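Bug #77: duplicate submission created two jobs. Keeping one. Sequence:
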Amino acid sequence: MKKIIITLLAGCLVFNAATGQKITPFKAGDRVAFVGNSITDGGHYHSYIWLYYMTHFPNMRITCFNTGIGGDAIGQIADRFDDDVLSKKPTVLTLSWGMNDSGYFEWYRADAQDVFDKRMVNSYKTYDLVADKLRKRPEIRTILIGGSPYDETTKFTTKNIWPHKSAALASIIVHQEQSAKDNHWGFIDFYHPMTEINIRGQVKDSTFSLTPNDRVHPDNDGHLVMAYLFLKAQGLDNKPVADISINAQSKKVSRAVNCQVSNISGSADSVAFNYLANSLPYPIDTIPRGWGNHKKQADALKLVPFAKEFNQELLAVKGLKSGNYNLMMDGELMGNWSDKQFADGIDLAEITATPEYQQAIQIRELNEERWDIERRLRMYVWMEYDFLKGKNMLYKDNNAAMDSVKKYALKDMFVNGNKDNFMRARYKSIRDAWQKEINVLTDEIYAINKPQTHRITIVNTK
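Kept job's structure:
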């Protein structure tokens, strides 16, 4: 236990250092390509990051691209880098790699460390080729991500234990961080803060993990932790949705941060005013999303202070006489609080019934639909690069390619898992239609994400 506590304390220091990193926030018009393996491909962290920008900066449109492929090591990323990544014309590029480069079953071999060391000689050479392409494209702002951890210590299962893989992955992240420094690129460390959260959770519950399905892939809560670390590194924490303080008796506004308050009326028994925020609250998801996931995005609120640092919509009303008061928005009851609670402040972002939260939920659901369609396109790219290219059929998409997919699907679980999607995606007209759907969904998000003026009434219930 003493060893665990010492490790935990060390992890806390790393966590604080990691969350202290700073990178430039996105700006209007940015095209952000998130490059990686299956954790990017099938994960949500990039869509959560974009959802924050969609709601907190509704008038600043950006575009984010999932350019991950499941199973990719750096060699495969390099192989598709021009056609799959740079073709998106990114102005910002994040790169995460290493989970697959650090190996799996070979860690049971007696010479596992030698095998890993020899492999990494080639991996680092290949990474240097990618880095050189980025050095030649200074117009692309590059951010390296030290990826999420492999959880070697959780007790939720006895499977998927590959001794020393975690240390091997950590060594890759050290190399990535040094590369970011050498190239004056941004760097964000997911590995150490998430490992610290795992250790902290496992002190209380040995089965806890941010990667509870296979020790490798974060669940939805883990992806919100990743989004939290990314947004915090961008310096976007402690920027409230809104922060209002009003005196009911004087009808004066003493504070109005990121919002406008007007047309105040009332007395010590009641107060009413118009409220227009510049942002919308972040709509936390309470449903498990994605294949094989069991955790909800909301579960991460117990692990990191996302709500406090990124999603506060504070309303304080002072000068109310003693009693209980109904809070109404656009004539609809939101809840009942005492004069003291109003004086201390109510967090409107915790009330999912508010009209602005309901507006944000629509944006979340449209974004999820966009994410789901984009995943079909990523599954198609997986089939092209991780299977058909090896058969000299890259982008052939003809009957021979389909026959090859059907043949190998009988013995390859990954080909089989992508077969049905490829049966549709091999037709350009289908892919074009999917992309048009994504464009329509994104356009709709940016059409409906503008905050509206609401009438707030606070009245004594007597």
